[in-house]
Amino acid sequence: MRLPSRLTSIDGAPVGARSRILSLGAIARGSMTPEEEQRIEPAGDRLREAHFFIHELESYYHEADPFRWHLNAFLKALKEVPDLIATGLQNRTGFPAWYRAERSPVSQDPLIRLLADHRDLVVHRGMLLPRSKGVLGLAEGAGIKLGLGIPIDPLTDSDDAMRSYLASVQERGDFLGIITIDDEDSLPCIQRRWSLGEFGDADIVDLAASAWSKVAALMNSVVRYLEGPDLTVDLSCRHHFDGVRVRVYNRADLRAGKIAGFRLR
């Protein structure tokens, strides 16, 4: 049994096509019944939804509003998975007591609890504003060659940080030397990092992936309890660190006042 490891395909079907968490072939190899599969299918669907939003967080990492909105959606989807499992199998003899014990360590996990609290904040009381900071500098090869740490407002895009630097160049000159320098091997860049204060400098997308893996492991335990085949719940489909967090700019464009960042890869 396999959850999708790529957004381009879910169980071999294009994204957007309906896909069940279990295949009929998988059922035939275990003792899980089609009815049991149907009852946990909503939880599996929500788990796939949360997986989708992890990749959306990567895609919109440098665009503040879409990043925050997709984070909200991820928090909502992930929190609903354990409840959907409980609801779907509440009438199965022996399951509620087993599930309470199995679910408890996940529910009490500090990261899961924090994300659940943030989800409740978003749904009931207000907006979530993660911490945001960055490095303005030069990217070369696989990473940053040099840079200056800067705050980046969580309500502004990374391009706005570069725009602010261009404005300062008009007054004080290119004190970092990232625009006026002639260097074909490097590119001006912004390296951004989103975080939650309670977990220090840990990147939010890394935290989201860790939380997803813990909830997916709970889902796998449920499937094992039902004597179904194991799920594959890895996130090997995630993008490379620098490809997500580093946004680079064409030097000639910046000299002309054009700001159009793009990924290293």
Notes on the structure:
- By secondary structure, the protein is an alpha+beta fold.
- The protein has 2 domains: about 25-130 and about 205-240; about 130-195 and about 245-265, no CATH class.
- It is about 50% helix and about 10% strand.
- The protein has helices at about 25-30, 35-60, 65-90, 95-110, 110-125, 160-170, 205-225, 240-245, 250-255; strands spanning about 130-140, 145-150, 185-195, 245-250, 260-265.
- It has a 5-stranded antiparallel β-sheet with strand order 2-1-3-4-5.
- Strand 1 and strand 2 (about 145-150) form a beta hairpin.
Low-confidence stretches: 1-29
Structural class: alpha+beta
Q: How much helix, percentage-wise, in residues?
A: 40-55%
- The helix count comes to 9
Question: Mind summarizing the main beta sheet?
Answer: 5 strands, antiparallel
Give the topology string: H per helix, E per strand.
Answer: HHHHHEEHEHHEHE
How many DSSP-defined strands? Answer: 5
Query: If you compute it from the alpha carbons, what radius of gyration comes out, rounded to the nearest whole angstrom?
Result: 22 Å
Q: What is the mean predicted local confidence, pLDDT?
A: 85
- Give the neighbour order of strands across the main sheet: 2-1-3-4-5
The shape is: elongated
What is the number of domains? 2
